[in-house]
């Protein structure tokens, strides 16, 4: 098998048996990336393939030769452009952060590197993670490896593109409202959004602080479990990180499906815009559970109809606040008109942010102003409390909640870029997970007649990542 | 307090641009204002579900984020504080030097 087609766990086994070296692995990915750059329609998943990745791989091989046995030694990973890697550019796909170099490692990256992993490059994203297609990037769009005329999803589309496009075995993304699961679904990968608190957010550029979480894109369940087991756990730099033991995730066995209680939210099945082919594949996923002895129950959670509205009220309020720090003084771009600080601040932001980010900041400031929006923010918070409560109640009575990841398959490049509301509705099935802070895994459950991947989400209660991954592993084992 | 939202007219949009520290010259304001209006109108979907839950219940959601109970505990007496460090000067605690001055 080609090195670039192997999973992370397969590469780990080959490294440990001495069949492969880290250098060979990174060289293979570099060659794959460089060859693709010359293609007529390159994927453009990476915005930078690190020049020192080969050196880091060489050092990992030397360490192995001298007896080092760290769990991820010599295994490469790609990282979204909003996760800090010391000494490397971190631009969030934005012109406003041009030239900014991260002075420290994000905790998730620090833990992977401490376990021996090799950062191989940073991946494209919608500017400040605001988008569902990776078209809103100052570097231009990424493409979907399954069909290069389609978007890879977003905002972690570059991460999905490099993993599905054989340019990395695994990649980190980030989620605020579905930005890992949506690209996973569009590109035929597994994509995990962990519980809010499982992974530290330290060193990850903030979008919506009460919603943000780092996620993982991979080719199989074991890869996600292995990487998550290394990254998860308490971090003194992030008070919201959980002091729990996640080491069991490193070795997963398939779950027993017989007797599993599965909830299907009626509102999602009846939602306008659900592609009939996705509905059919989702029904086959339900049938897979049924045929193995699971109990499937349709549940009603009416408030889910308001999830997208609630999500955008809260996320954009937090974004407007978080992005106020980009003032032309502290980071990246500075547009000094020589007229004073206020003018510098406005000129830098006006030139540095793209239209989508501006749109979101303006809406966020509208929501945050009682004078303009009345009690809009309060309503959003009230609905969020209700979503948390109602989803929590369902997950007390059921082991998992199952729903499609997206109402459609990947869409053509450029088709929604000028219609922000249509773009926002791509997140129809994903935002409630972030609002409820629960974990969810998008599993590539099937393909349409035209060969496009379709993801199905497995969601569970807070910190039930192990349960989700074991259920997905049972499905994976049955393929 | 006015609980009802205002329509986003040209003046309101100008104010929002100011709050966002964005220049009206930098974008196609008419298109942007139209898109903002469309999205803000979509938020009306919240009206039918909001109101019966305490918005503050949205935080915290998990035990990890639960803060300690609001118990009132006795603070340290000056004598206890002085036991922590012998570093005093002119009746004040000494602190490390910081850039630009300090004790």
In CATH terms, what is the architecture of the domain at 3-250 in chain A?
Alpha-Beta Complex
Main sheet: strand order of chain A: 1-3-2-4-6-5-10-11-9-7-8
Helix residue percentage of chain B: 25-40%
| Global Rg of chain A | 21 Å
Mean pLDDT of chain A: 96
Measure the end-to-end span of chain A.
Answer: 19 Å
- What kind of oligomer do you see? heterodimer
Outline of chain B:
elongated
CATH class of the domain at 3-250 in chain A: Alpha Beta
What percentage of residues of chain A falls in helices of 4 or more residues? 25-40%
Termini separation of chain B (Å)?
A: 48 Å
Uncertain stretches of 5 or more adjacent residues of chain A: none
Number of strands of chain B: 2
Strand content of chain A: 5-15%
Order of SSEs of chain B: HHHEE
Describe the structure.
The complex is a heterodimer of chains A (479) and B (103). By secondary structure, chain A is an alpha/beta fold. Chain A has a domain at 3-250: Amidase signature (AS) enzymes (Alpha-Beta Complex), CATH 3.90.1300. Chain A is 39% helix and 13% strand. Chain A has an 11-stranded mixed β-sheet with strand order 1-3-2-4-6-5-10-11-9-7-8, sandwiched between helices. In chain A, strand 10 (440-447) and strand 11 (453-459) form a beta hairpin. In chain A, helix 2 (22-37) runs antiparallel to helix 3. Chain A starts with 7 loop residues before the first helix and ends with a helix. Chain B is mainly α and 103 residues long. Chain B has a domain at 10-65. Chain B is built from 3 helices and 2 strands; from the N terminus they run αααββ. Chain B has helices at 10-19, 29-42, 78-84, and strands at residues 88-89, 92-93. Chain B has a two-stranded antiparallel ribbon. Chain B is elongated. Chain B starts with 9 loop residues before the first helix and ends in a 10-residue tail after the last strand. The model of chain B has no long low-confidence stretch (mean pLDDT 77). Classes of the chains: A alpha/beta (479), B mainly alpha (103). Chains A and B meet through helix 10, helix 11, helix 12, helix 13 and helix 14 of A and helix 1 and helix 2 of B.
